[in-house]
Design brief:
Rossmann fold; single chain; 14 helices; alpha/beta; five-stranded parallel beta sheet
């Protein structure tokens, strides 16, 4: 008898988690996706079994992020905060442990941009804004590339390399497809720069009662220019986003010198992503043309 599949995923916020997991979800019809879970989810075995039994599926995805509101210790490293999967539960599943890793420069730039867009999102990211904690978390996750119990998925390569995506699909045992590649997930507030993707006009028509609801009309009244801009803009497509250039928005920001010059981050980035993923070091960073040395997020 074939065991159901349990995919456990760990990733820092703004690493492309939802883009990749949305694609993984589409590889397995009937998948149940438990997004951004509390870090103690696996601590109580009986509660975990009950949770999984509520929505039995041939494939279940459980993801954990560095969300400060999902742990009792917001300053703790992500991997130290997540309770281990009980062995008895693991035995009942075909378990795959994934780490989603984006290069540290574009990840941090997207986190800065997301926190700066609170006027549109209504709230900042739930991750701890500490630069030092981010650095340690990123290096710790990157180190799992040498651990045979984990499969590290490099976002930068995943989005560009069909062969790499096929290899991931084969390792997971899914049925390959690319239909989900251009979808921008609503989970996590959408893109840090483009925001939550607009549905198609047909999709909006199907949801017409939603646009007459009190909560939506209050949001529209508070920020009409934003919603007019969204209405006339084409739906966001993941393949057209300049996700490799987000780091340029950091030039002139307080933490940019530490980020761009950090020798450990540069060494690990070059090893995993290649030298092309390395931005110039601070003294060689290009002039953004703002005159003040800062760039808009």
């Amino acid at each position: 008898m074939t065991k159901p599949k349990l995919i456990l995923c760990v990733g820092l916020q703004r690493s492309g988690n939802h883009a990749i997991l949305g694609w993984v979800e589409a590889l397995f019809p009937g998948t149940v996706f438990h997004n951004d879970q509390f870090h103690d989810l696996f601590a109580d075995e009986s509660a975990l079994r009950a949770r999984l039994a509520e929505h039995p599926a041939p494939c279940t995805i459980v993801s954990f992020e560095d969300s400060a509101n999902r742990t009792h210790a917001p300053d703790r490293l992500l991997l130290d905060s997540i309770a281990p999967l009980p062995a008895a539960v693991a035995d009942a599943y075909d378990v795959h442990r994934l780490v989603i890793l984006r290069d540290p420069y574009n990840t941090w730039a997207s986190r800065v941009a997301a926190n700066a867009r609170t006027a549109e999102f209504g709230r900042p990211l739930t991750s701890n804004p500490s630069w030092d904690l981010y650095r340690e978390n990123w290096l710790r996750l990157a180190a799992l590339d040498a651990d045979p119990d984990w499969q590290v998925i490099l976002f930068n390569r995943w989005k560009d390399d069909t062969g790499y995506r096929r290899a991931i699909c084969d390792a997971l045992g899914g049925t390959y497809g690319e239909e989900a590649l251009d979808q921008v997930s609503h989970r996590g507030g959408g893109s840090s720069f483009e925001g939550v993707p607009r549905p198609s006009y047909l999709g909006m028509l199907r949801q017409f009662p939603k646009y007459l609801s009190g909560p939506f009309l209050r949001r529209l009244t508070a920020n009409p220019a934003y919603y007019v801009k969204r209405f006339i803009a084409p739906p966001a497509k993941g393949s057209t986003m300049q996700v490799d250039k987000r780091w340029t928005t950091l030039i002139g920001k307080p933490e940019s010198a530490a980020l761009l010059a950090d020798p450990d981050l540069r060494a690990v980035t070059a090893r995993l992503f290649g030298a092309k993923a390395l931005p110039p070091e601070p003294e060689m960073a290009p002039d953004t043309g703002t005159g003040s040395g800062s760039a808009a997020a």
